[in-house]
Amino acid sequence: MRMRTLLAGVTVGAALLAGGIVAPAQAAPETAPAPAAAAEWTEAIKAGAPVRSCPSASCAPLWRTAYAGQALEWYNVETNSAGNVWYELNSPRWGWIYCGNVTAPC
Global pTM? Predict the structure, then answer.
């Protein structure tokens, strides 16, 4: 009995594949994801500059720059509601740093 059920399932599966049944297409997302920005490098102006959890001075510091001249890789720039420019870092760790703490232009 089990063998007959198994063979029937295999036969139906083979028929579906041979018949060209295709899974329905998925709906396109409402908004396409933004393309990845090219990463650029800058340097910390001073040791101990706070790297924060969001682009605002009121956000919690996640870590601080280790030394003046520390290489920082950024991939996004945002101007917050106060008009301050912040860089979103990718390396050495993730976070936001105020433009006044890096050599990149504000």
Answer: 0.65
